[in-house]
Design goal:
By secondary structure, the chain is an alpha+beta fold. The protein has 3 domains: about 120 residues, Orthogonal Bundle (DNA ligase i, domain 1), CATH 1.10.3260; about 190 residues, DNA ligase/mRNA capping enzyme (D-amino Acid Aminotransferase, Chain A, domain 1), CATH 3.30.470.30; about 120 residues, Nucleic acid-binding proteins (OB fold (Dihydrolipoamide Acetyltransferase, E2P)), CATH 2.40.50. Helix content is about 40%, strand content about 20%. It is built from 20 helices and 20 strands. The strands form 4 sheets. Strands 12, 13, 14, 15, 16, 17 and 20 form a 7-stranded antiparallel sheet that branches. A hairpin with an 8-residue loop joins strand 12 and strand 13. The longest helix has 18 residues.
Length: about 550
């Protein structure tokens, strides 16, 4: 296909607004693509390379401006191009506004008089992407100049956009998926599954055309070719307990998502964005070699650690971004793997297996570094797991449907990140319970109450989550002088101390005298600046409950 025809089609698609019209236009484009099908399935999305491929053009705006200026003529500078961009707001419109001279200067760059084709653009851009070393910037400018100098105004519009990954014609991944299904008469579901395991729209389009549904069904994960990570959405423990029979609970780490590919010999590590970061994480490569017993694709988190304590996410980023002097960076910031899922093991895909089966398989092939998965329907147990995660310095918990499959790139309802506390309440401590085991000498569970207008206090719930051992010791010392009565482990406390408490939800409940209960309350701190008279009222609790 001539690149001019692609540009014409892209222009027509850009004028459309209805999703159905866009899908129909992309369907027509793919159906007529012939040998250019794989390239066009990418180009129409603004991609030069398959989604799984971390290869980039490495063309910054300034380099693109320089190439446009060179093609536009001696009287145009990169600054002129940038000024025009500020005026027009679109690099495609800027490129289209210049007359690049049609076929002028082609002999100097080895091109013939033929019109530019889609295949030539793809080949030249691939050459550009792999241009490295001394003088590479000038070579890249020359390649772009050679392409631009063969374009019409409309071709230049879409070539410039493609180079800077700014196609902006309204075609997303879903539209291409549906267009592949329509163009080659294959089910959307089969197309989507093939895209999930291959992460390559061009390849899936070709297989759909050449081999139909049966060919798509044969596509599988490939070790060394990353796929999009399954994602979580914000949710609550209440959501999980309401929607699932049981809840899979894991610690939520403040780290960086990775996908580890091991073929039995070579280890490759990819970031959440599918960028290869193997060289930056030599200890993860070493750990995988030593502990992974079969070829596999493993999903997990990289956490920065210092003497057993987790470090902030920014410390992990320091390692991911380091390309030079990695040995020194390794000494400064140590990282560890926390694996939590297994997509493929020993030549078998596990995407359709339930979470519990995938986790069991992960534990069977990876000795150490596997995040614990607890399956429960007990809200108190979930709260205890969250407390332990927070005590260990981590972010909190993940909630997962134990029966869920692994859906690359999807942010569905089967994985939930527990919502941070949206509101907080300042409540008076009116009772407590002595702890057990190693916490037997501490008050460990605290009864909380809002105030009423008459100065009395009504119980609303208990909090034991979000409190470290050190804080328990301090709170016990603070509250012990205010113990009024004691019956076994349970004590009544005079209303003197105010806690700030986060929570997930306020529910009506006959358990407490306020008529409400806090779902998953979490201790945030002592309000030294507030007296019980300044604590939140029952009226505010009722108002918050109604507004949920």
């Amino acid at each position: 296909m001539e690149f001019a025809e692609f540009a014409e089609r892209a222009g027509e698609i850009e004028e459309l607004s209805a999703d159905t019209d866009i899908i129909e236009a992309v369907t027509d484009l793919l159906a007529s693509a012939n040998d250019d099908l794989e390239v066009l399935a990418r180009f129409v999305q603004g991609r030069v390379f398959p989604a799984w491929d971390s290869t980039t053009l490495d063309i910054g705006p300034n380099l693109c401006y320089t190439a446009i200026a060179h093609a536009a003529g001696q009287n145009v500078s990169a600054d002129d191009v940038e000024d025009r961009l500020a005026e027009l707001g679109d690099i495609g419109a800027v490129a289209a506004s210049y007359d690049f001279g049609g076929q002028q200067g082609l002999a100097a760059f080895g091109a013939g008089p033929e019109k530019l084709t889609v295949a030539e653009v793809a080949d030249e851009l691939e050459t550009l992407a792999h241009t490295e070393g001394a003088g590479s910037q000038d070579t890249k400018i020359d390649i772009l100049f050679g392409l631009l100098n063969r374009t019409s105004s409309k071709e230049a519009r879409y070539l410039a956009r493609l180079v800077l990954s700014e196609m902006r014609i309204g075609v997303g991944e879903g539209a291409v998926r549906d267009a592949i299904a329509d163009a080659f008469d294959v089910p959307v579901k089969a197309t989507e599954r093939a895209l999930q395991v291959s992460n390559d729209y061009g390849r899936v389009a070709r297989v759909a055309r050449d081999s139909g549904e049966s060919g798509l069904d044969e596509l599988q994960l490939e070790v060394g070719r990353p796929v999009q990570a399954m994602l979580a959405q914000a949710g609550t423990v209440t959501d999980a307990l309401d929607d699932w029979v049981n809840v899979g609970v894991e610690w939520k780490f403040d780290g960086a998502r990775v996908q580890i590919h091991y073929d039995g010999d070579e280890v490759r590590v990819f970031s959440r964005n599918m960028e290869e970061v193997t060289d930056a994480l030599p200890e993860i490569v070493e750990y995988t070699h030593e502990n992974l017993e079969a070829p596999a694709i493993v999903d997990g988190e990289i956490v920065a650690m210092d003497d057993g304590e987790p470090l902030p996410f920014q410390e992990v980023l320091r390692r991911f971004r380091r390309k030079h002097d990695v040995a020194r960076a390794r000494e400064e910031v140590a990282v560890e793997l926390r694996a939590f899922d297994c997509l493929h093991a020993d030549n078998k895909d596990l995407l359709t297996a339930p979470l519990t089966e995938r986790h069991d398989r992960l534990q069977s092939i990876l000795s150490g570094g596997v995040s614990a998965l607890t399956v429960t329907d007990d809200a108190d147990e979930i709260a205890a797991i969250e407390a332990n995660a927070l005590d260990a310095g981590h972010e909190g918990i993940m909630l997962k449907n134990p029966e869920s499959t692994y859906s690359p790139g999807r942010r569905g309802k089967n994985w939930l990140k527990r919502k941070p506390d949206v509101e907080t309440l300042d409540l008076v401590v009116t009772g407590a319970e002595w702890g057990e085991g190693r916490r037997a000498s501490f008050l460990g569970t605290f009864l909380l109450s809002p105030r009423e207008e008459n100065g009395e206090f009504e119980t609303l719930g208990k909090v034991a989550t979000g409190i470290t051992d050190e804080e328990l010791a301090e709170l016990t010392e603070l509250l012990e002088p205010h113990i009024a009565t004691q019956d076994g482990q349970i004590v009544d406390i005079s209303p003197e101390i105010v806690f700030e408490v986060g929570y997930e939800e306020i529910q009506q409940s006959p358990t407490y005298s306020a008529g409400y209960a806090l779902r998953f309350p979490r201790f945030l701190g002592v309000r030294d600046d507030k007296s019980p008279a300044d604590a939140d009222s029952l009226e505010r609790v009722e108002r918050l409950a109604e507004s949920q």
